[in-house]
Design brief:
alpha/beta, Rossmann fold, about 230 residues, 9 helices
């Protein structure tokens, strides 16, 4: 990922290009680093997302920012028809599983209206250029009655947990990521949290996009958040 000379975070088209380049670079060792840094909790969080969606068997579910296909694999195991979409060609080339994959921008999905029964997105909200545009696209491609589940990082409410998590996330994660993969990419990871609105604002944005039953769930003591909602 391109490092800004003044250490600022990129915006707009500059951010889109930087994120795409970053994920192309880290794709080969992405799964290994993820498993180590989360102590394999990332897999538990994805399974929790599917439980909250509570979709019927054989539902068509989009995995947006699918990366190497972790959500696609879990969706297939659960008996659903998964379709993955990602901006990074490098990530798609490293993907596992048998689900069909599409390269595309999440703000202009290459999919017809009401294409899916549901959609999931894992740890990508902070990498998007425009969250409101993304939520509008979600509303467009999910059929009425469909469900969405969006995972991303969070900060624990408990002050002790928040301190410990902050130390790990801001110090240990960049160190481990730098040793095993790309130093710049994993230095960006903790800084990218500043892109995310707070929980109440995220729920408001989903409601403004037209979704109902918008809820926020804190997972693993609050280090991860899950946003769920229904397309009326």
């Amino acid at each position: 990922m391109t490092v800004m000379p003044d250490d600022r975070l990129p915006e707009g088209d500059e951010k889109r290009a930087a994120v795409r380049s970053m994920f192309d670079t880290i794709a080969p060792r992405y799964d290994l680093v993820n498993r180590l840094m989360t102590f394999r909790l990332d897999q538990r969080w994805r399974r929790a997302t599917l439980r909250h969606l509570d979709l019927p068997s054989q539902a068509t579910v989009l995995d947006l920012a699918c990366g190497t296909g972790d959500f696609c694999v879990e969706l297939t195991k659960a008996g659903h028809q998964a379709v993955g979409v990602d901006l990074s060609l490098g990530m798609l080339r490293a993907a596992r599983g048998t689900a069909p994959l599409l390269q595309g921008d999440l703000l202009a999905l290459p999919l017809a209206d009401h294409r899916a029964d549901g959609a999931v997105c894992g740890f990508a909200l902070r990498n998007l250029v425009d969250l409101e545009a993304f939520f509008a696209e979600l509303f467009r491609v999910v059929r009425p009655g469909g469900r969405i589940g969006l995972l991303d990082v969070s900060r624990p409410d408990n002050p002790v947990l928040r301190w410990g998590h902050g130390l790990y996330f801001n110090r240990v994660v960049p160190l481990v990521g730098g040793l095993l993969s790309d130093r710049n990419a994993y230095a960006y990871l903790p800084r990218s949290v500043s892109y995310l609105p707070d929980g109440p604002r995220l729920l408001s944005m989903l409601t403004e996009a037209g979704f109902v039953q918008a809820e926020r769930h804190q997972l693993s003591g609050g280090i991860t958040q899950l946003l769920t909602a229904t397309r009326p």
